[in-house]
Design goal:
By secondary structure, this protein is mostly helical. It has one domain. The relative contact order is 0.20.
């Protein structure tokens, strides 16, 4: 299914709110968009979560260098999101993946 390193990354790098956000994006991607359960799905949700992290942590608009760094980082994250979304769209399923619950459960348990 999904490599154990990805679950370790999920546990190590994400806060409780970000885990919740990730799982909600994954559920939506599987059930509504009918994306297959895969590592591409993991990375798609991961980068969506990173984008949300940056959006929430956006500092005051005063520091030009920091704004530039954030904007460049956001641009790279959006490119990754686009890349994984295209890959997922190419393999879109006619109905939600039957492995959806096991994928969501796998990441719900620490």
């Amino acid at each position: 299914m999904i490599r154990d390193e990805l679950k370790k990354q999920f546990i190590r790098e994400l806060t409780a709110f970000e885990k919740f956000y990730f799982l909600n994006r994954a559920r939506e991607a599987i059930l509504i968009n009918r994306y297959p359960v895969s590592e591409d799905l993991f990375y798609y949700c991961y980068f969506l979560t990173m984008k949300e992290r940056i959006r929430k942590a956006e500092p005051d608009r005063g520091n030009g260098l920091l704004r530039f760094i954030i904007a460049e980082g956001l641009k790279e994250i959006e490119e990754e999101i686009r890349y994984y979304k295209e890959r997922l769209e190419a393999n879109r399923l006619p109905e939600p993946d039957r492995k959806a619950e096991s994928f969501l459960e796998y990441f719900s348990i620490d």
